Amino acid sequence: MREQNNMVNRSVTIMIVDDSRDNLELLSTILKKESFRTHSISSGIQALELAPKLRPDLILLDIMMPEIDGYEVCYQLKNSPKTVDIPVIFISSKNKPDDKILGFDAGAVDYITKPFHRAETLSRIRTHLALKDARDELHRANQEIIIQNKKLEMAYQELQTIARTDSLTQLSNRGDLYRHLEAEKSRFGRNQKPFSLILCDIDNFKKINDTYGHDCGDYVLVHTANLFKKHTRLQDIIGRWGGEEFLFILPETSTAGAEIVAEKVREAIDYFPFMYDEKLLKVSITLGITLYDNFELSIDDAVKQADEALYLGKMRGKNRSVLYSEIRNTLKD
To answer: Does a structural domain hold residue 210?
Structure first.
């Protein structure tokens, strides 16, 4: 058992702070016989300079020393981030209760009076070293828990992103678009500020797939999505509605504002050189626009309005944007 203690003690460093050479030698001899490593320091100022560098496992500290006493040394050690966790044991001839209270108030974990008993001193030292090890282990365990929790949170966020993102275009998927649509509807209910929807379809996309293959179709989808992101505002929400259809949600945007956005992205697609396998592809889009300004209107019905406007654009020759209000006005007439 003693041999096991000695093996453990060899990795433990104790700083002894005392202005008496005799006390330093006596304590150092006792501790070295137990295989502790020691640093003998003769002044409080030296202790404050060296403790942050040496980072001992425990400090044995005298109180009555010139220049700066042990109480002040302990107080400063406990107020420094580098030394706050090092246990301090006072060893002093001052044995009145008030002296001990001052020592504990300064931050010491124990107080041993001189002349000290060898076995008792070693027992107290080992006890506080064991407590320090337990605190350190608890701190390490807590840090590990924090790290693991952060990893779990990051993994959860990544899964949430995957669940809400179209894997090909990296835009919102249909489920995520529905979530945003419901949020915008709720916001409209609160502030009565309408928002616009744009449903967009890539013209003749089936022909592109049939002629050049699905890899080419994927190429067109990805580059179209990138152009959408490039030519819309930060607050705009874009997602893949399904197949070659995309939905734009434009918060607090009028029909006129939505029409500007629609024409901007339409022209960006129309003028972009889609090159695949050294072939220049002609790609265009048709867009249907509607305004959500009636809380009684369901989200599905609002999207249906945009779809009807999109269909009218297809009937008119494609590569254009159409307002649902044109259909509504026609029906009124």
So the answer is: yes
Among the residue ranges 1-15, 93-107, 161-175, the one predicted with the least confidence is: 1-15
Are residues 118 and 187 both part of a single domain? no
**Same-domain check for residues 219 and 306:** yes
Domain around 131: 2-139
**DSSP assignment of 37-96, as one string?**
EEEEE-SHHHHHHHHHHH--SEEEE-S--SSS-HHHHHHHHHTSTTTTTS-EEEEES--S
**In terms of domains, do 86 and 180 share one?**
no
Same domain for 209 and 133? no
Examine the residue annotation and report whether 244 is marked as an active-site residue of this protein. yes
Residue 118 pLDDT > 60, yes or no? yes
pLDDT digits (tens, 9 = 90+) for 32-43: 999 999 999 999
Could you give the CA distance from residue 163 to residue 45 in angstroms, rounded to a whole number?
61
Residue 111 lies in a domain: yes
Give the C-alpha distances (Å, rounded to integers) separating 187 from 163, 173, 190, 193, 294: 24, 21, 5, 8, 12
> For residue 168, what pLDDT is reported?
95
> Do residues 129 and 16 share a domain?
yes
Say if residue 188 is in the same domain as residue 87: no
In a domain, 258, yes or no: yes
DSSP state of 252: T
pLDDT in tens, 184-232: 999 999 999 999 999 999 999 999 999 999 999 999 999 999 999 999 9
Q: For residue 325, give both structure tokens.
A: 């209000």
Catalytic member of 158, 184, 244, 259? 244
Angle at 234 between CA 231 and CA 236, to 5 degrees: 80
What percent of the chain has pLDDT above 90? 89
